[in-house]
Design a protein that fits this description.
two-stranded antiparallel sheet
């Protein structure tokens, strides 16, 4: 039992998790309703606006991961114990839900045989059993490489003063922008080299390669190593990141409006707002800072306490929410269409239903003796006013 004093709690963390998870479910709800036949241009505008307001979800989760890991890790990292906890709390529930999604796929009921085992194994390793599991694979890479990040970032932190640390952070940000701008060229080079595993990591599976998301983790690490200074910068730069957030957000909405207008007619699609592009990265970094400020305001004014509870349910909810969404579309087809609701209203209702059901199921499963193997570790008492920093996500 360590006799080191416990660190103060970062009260925004679970609120941020709640915001990020709600945004994930919203994005996937938008993706479904953008394809319904009844969706018109007015729905496209609403969906585009909501999508840009929710686009920060995955980068914010990565930021939270970096922040809590660097905040909680003391002078010495016990890597074996660290990874054992991740295997039990993150990887095992992921495997369980991967098997659930795989089994529930229509063709697997009748056609699966022993010859399909290698295909299943590949899908588990690459996160292909469900469309949203790419994030889990990318998250595991950060866990596996955490000692390298820890050594490098702590070296900069202890060697340089505040100005030097800021320069190092800016340099890593510029490198990140260059990498994202060269995404296609890097994929082309790797395709020519045909290096086993590595080529696939930069081509077929580039969307889950940690290298294309590392800056959000580094930004979280910077915040976790110096929370007070991070909070000062959140206050000091508020006009800058709000201006970037609004300006680039409106620009992306305009670009989406142009993308909707196709020669064959209206098509609501969102290829323009890929996560890996320089201007989107600037927007997402600004979004993270906006959400962090809002999380602090929500806590300060005791508003929306349920976001902290949603944050506590976020990992199990993330794993199951696509399945919950699948069944949430049933009342949409039976009732919402018959009642004459437009697609935007149907989407919002379905989003709230799926969000609530995912969180409730996670809470109920977590109460079971074996629940942590399915939904990970869930706080027994999650409150916004008393949130303990966790390394689970």
């Amino acid at each position: 039992m360590s006799d080191l004093p416990r660190k103060e709690r970062i009260t925004e963390i679970e609120t941020l998790r709640g915001i990020a998870f709600a945004a994930v479910v919203l994005q996937h709800s938008i993706a479904h309703y953008s394809l319904v036949p009844q969706a018109g241009l007015q729905d496209g505008i609403v969906l585009a606006l909501l999508l840009m307001l929710a686009k920060f979800a995955v980068p914010l989760f990565i930021f939270i991961t970096g922040m809590v890991l660097f905040y909680n890790t003391r002078d010495q990292l016990h890597y074996g114990q660290f990874m054992r906890k991740r295997v039990m709390d993150v990887i095992l529930p992921y495997v369980v839900w991967s098997l659930i999604y795989f089994i529930l796929a229509p063709r697997n009921w009748t056609e699966f045989g022993w010859q399909d085992i290698p295909d299943l194994a590949l899908k588990l390793v690459t996160g292909k059993t469900a469309s949203h599991f790419w994030y889990i694979i990318m998250l595991i890479q950060f866990y596996a490489l955490f000692p390298l990040f820890l050594r490098g970032i702590r070296y900069v932190y202890h060697r340089y003063q505040a100005k030097g640390r800021m320069i190092a952070l800016l340099v890593s940000g510029v490198l990140f922008l260059v990498l994202s701008d060269q995404l296609r060229n890097i994929a082309g080079w790797m395709e020519q080299l045909q290096i086993p595993v590595l080529t696939d990591a930069f081509t077929t599976y580039a969307d889950r390669n940690f290298i294309y998301f590392f800056f959000y983790f580094v930004l979280g690490a910077a915040a976790g190593l110096s929370v007070q200074r991070w909070n000062e910068w959140i206050i000091r730069l508020r006009w800058v990141y709000w201006l970037v957030f609004i300006t680039l957000g409106l620009r992306f909405i305009y670009l989406l409006m142009l993308e909707f207008q196709q020669p064959e007619g209206l098509q609501i699609r969102f290829y323009t707002v890929s996560l890996i592009r320089p201007d989107m990265i600037l927007f997402l970094v600004a979004s993270i800072m906006v959400m962090y400020q809002l999380a602090g305001k929500l806590h300060q004014h005791q508003v929306l306490h349920w976001l902290g509870w949603i944050g506590g349910m976020s990992y199990g909810g993330y794993l199951m929410h696509m399945l919950v969404l699948r069944y949430s579309y049933i009342p949409d087809e039976w009732l919402y269409v018959a009642w004459g609701w437009n697609p935007s209203v149907r989407m919002i209702v379905t989003w709230l239903v799926a969000l609530g059901v995912s969180c409730m199921l996670t809470w109920l499963i977590s109460r079971l003796k074996w629940g942590k193997w399915i939904v990970g570790v869930v706080p027994k008492h999650t409150q916004v006013s008393k949130t303990t920093v966790s390394t689970r996500k």
